[in-house]
Amino acid sequence: MIEACGLTVAAGGRELLRGVSLSVRPGEVVAVIGPNGAGKSTLLRSLAGELRAPAGMVRFAGQPITALRPAELARRRAVVSQAVELAFPMRADEVVRLGRLPWYGTAEAARDAEAVENGLERAGVLHLRDRAYATLSGGERQRVQLARALAQIEGATRPAAILLDEPTASLDAAHRVAMLRGLRGLAADGLAILIILHDLNEAGYVADRVGVLGQGRLVALGPPAEVLRAGTMRQIFGVAFREAPGGGLLPDFPCRTR
Amino acid sequence: MIGRRAIGPLAAGLGLARGARAQGLPSRIVSVGGALTETVFALGEGARVFAVDSTSRFPAACAALPQVGYMRALPTEGIMGMNPDLLLLSGDAGPPEVVQVLRAARLPIAQVADGAGADAAPDKARAVAAVLGRDGEALARALAGDWARLDAPLAALGSRPRVLFVLSLARGAPLVSGRGTHAHAMIEAAGGTNPVRDFVGYRPLSAEAAAMLAPDAILMMDHALAEAGGAATALMVPALAVTPAARAGRILAFDGAFLFNFGPRAAHARLALARALHPGLALPDLPGRPWTAA
Amino acid sequence: MDGGLIPPRAATTPAAPRLARTVLAGCLLLVVALLAGVLLGPARVTPAGLAATLAEALGWAPLPAQHASNAAILGVVRAPRVLLAAMLGAGLAVAGAVMQGLFRNPLADPGLIGVSAGAALAAVGAIVLGPALFGSRAGGLGLWLLPMAAFAGGLGATVVIARLATRGGVTGVSTLLLAGVAVNALCGALTGLLVFMADDRQVRDITFWMLGSLAGARWVHLPVAATLVLLPALAMLALARPLNALTLGEREAFHLGLRVESTKRLAVALAAVAVSAGVALAGMIGFVGLVVPHLVRLMLGADHRLLLPGSALLGASLMVLADLAARSLAAPAELPVGVVTALIGAPFFLWLLRNRVAAS
Question: Is residue A215 classed exposed, middle or buried when 0-12, 13-18 and 19+ CB atoms within 10 A define those classes?
């Protein structure tokens, strides 16, 4: 679906990504983890078609992503960024409706209202539809943005892709689980999903494959059980991890002693 | 100078000449420009003036007339609404776009140049009289004669005092007159000399430049001097304090409309300024004229 | 997911009927304003005079002589003036709404991209240097010298600012703002220099020009305004969807398939043309571009599909009424229309600001 090949991205004389090759297949969730500044967001922006890579390339459904018309790409690829703020006050459902902009002028535009409805429902925010976006909590906003992204790709020629930048960051535990479960459901429907996460356990829970970025390089890529090892993580993050008894990986905080 | 071409046919075309306007002459005049308004009154036709601008303050009868505002910011509809049968405009009335609209509305407009100098007042008298359908020759000759009576004594002057005209002190640096202004013309006509030769129009003057100019007298309009806080305060402004005029305390104040209009009272204004500039000089009195009385 | 706690209800009102209602209401308001603008004012127009003027305009009957003055007031003075006011009001308001959407800032107005300062510099230059450069008749350009200069100045300043803010085909909005501040300051300084050089009479002309006026409106101006103000304003209506996308942010707008850079260029170019031409024809008229979009947003929400046409119609109506007030309040003298719009606009804007503070 989305395929990065030898991707190198530089900004301000600094290489943000070096030779990253990564693909997300339809029906698959790929989680990207890594320390702050490792290049996770840069990778997401490149895969979204936002950044032009001086070396390597990104393919979307087999074509170079830069060759696709922006609206055409937008109908098959949605992005949920971190903390989106509105310039002007809007209701939640109006925000979701913005997801339908790429469909303007197509036959699918007749289904806008339905797509908005479905998006709100699948993201679990139907009850927020009439609320002013500005009055929503960070987590609620994040879910409204997911609804917007779902409305955006509804009606797309399958497969379609959705890219999420730390979507769980401001969610409480219950909503984290709900969102990740929801994403698994979307993947089961054939969507290709790339998700940036900080929590290794969340990555282990949601991802079919986990990619680990360190200093702009993809240092590991594979099934969670292979990648999420205490030793590997220690090398990448520079702190000790311990494997929890029931599976999962926790940073090893030393107990405070007086 | 005058839109003579426009007046005749249009007046006829708009059917202005009828009823009380038995002679076919304009009788509902909006007069814009102090000198022109004074000239209309001097011609004895003041009763035909319906409204005036804010620069028309003489004779006193003007105060009772409707106002159309400042002459360079004329209102289109305010004037149209008065339904004038003649709009008498000083040459520098404006804005030009508004005059254009008024012309397009086929309002009868006569524009008379606002000149300065010996011939200015007689020229205006003739031009205004022509527009009003009167003979202005008598007035023009009287004005020219009055003006000429001062020519010989003033020409015989040995020395001419340097007179700096200060328009305003409100901008900080004094705004003084260069060449090409009515003030310049009147100073030169009254036996003084304007020390400012470098520029045309009004400019702010620095203290250094003022000291170099070394004026013997400062001339101001009375209301500008009052705004500046009176003679003593005005002469403390640095650019004026450095002048010989300040040391001698010579600051002269006149009504601006009287001194610089170059209307019917131009000769009297010349005499008044000349007497102020040359206290010892014997200058002939001018005959009493009806148009000098408010 | 945690499912809908509230059962789904019928889809929200589709935009199309709301748009139709908005446009209808706006048109009604505009018609009322236009009628008021033509029929009211310090010069009295009698019903008979109006009838005679209409009859003549429609070719039914020749104009009786006693209605000549009414006909002139209606046909020569008010009609072109009111129509020019409407076009300028629409252009300024839509340009304001587009700038606010583009900069994602409710305080933005076309002044940010240098239009006003550049036009002012060039207009003041024409007033002060025109006679020296072209003689008193301004070389046959006459009354068109100042508008042409102002138009060129407004566009020129915008081009300079846009160039300064563009690197590698990408126009940074915050750089655009900063470049705008710098170019505005430079234009302001140069204008100050020209004012210093101006004589007393020119200073007064400059002052009155700066305050804005529609007093010079003539029929010949209308085709110019239709081409350079109304047409760009109508073209800007097509920016509604792109501006909606930009509400989410530039990156999100790109994700939604928007060609962000070309949208920015188009928006800046159209707004610059419309506002430069408006300033050229009527001087500086403030607050319309700032306040009208706010007012419409309060009534109709932030959807640009409603906001832009709503702003156009409300801007047109308010400008016609502001000009009516300018003609009437100090009659027979005339207030500068920019003074009227600022007198109404500024307190209203402060009220908005207080409400925002209270709401947040």
Answer: middle
Closest of C255, C270, C227, C225 to residue C101, by C-alpha: C270
pLDDT in tens, C312-349: 999 999 999 999 999 999 878 888 899 999 998 889 88
* DSSP label at residue A39: S
B254 φ/ψ angles, rounded to the nearest 5 degrees = -135, 160
Contact between residue B71 and residue B261 where contact means Cβ atoms under 8 Å apart: no
Q: Is B77–C68 a contact, with Cβ atoms under 8 angstroms apart?
A: no
Task: For residue C294, give the chain A residue with the closest CA.
Answer: A88
**CATH 1.10.3470.10 fits domain C23-38+46-56+70-341:** yes
Contact yes or no, A with B (3+ CB pairs under 8 Å): no
Q: Which chains lie within 8 Å of chain C at 3 or more CB pairs, if any?
A: A, B
Cβ-based contacts of B21 with chain C (< 8 Å) = none
Asked if A113 lies within 8 A of C14 by C-beta distance, the reply is: yes
A94 touches chain C (CB under 8 A): yes
Identity at C17, one-letter amino acid code: P
Report the distance separating Cα A86 and Cα A84, nearest Å: 7
Phi, psi of C119 (to 5 degrees): -65, -40
Domain range spanning residue B270? 155-292
pTM above 0.80, yes or no: yes
Q: What is the pLDDT of residues B255-294, one digit of tens each?
A: 999 999 999 999 999 999 999 999 988 899 999 899 998 7
Question: Which CATH number does the domain housing residue B98 bear?
Answer: 3.40.50.1980
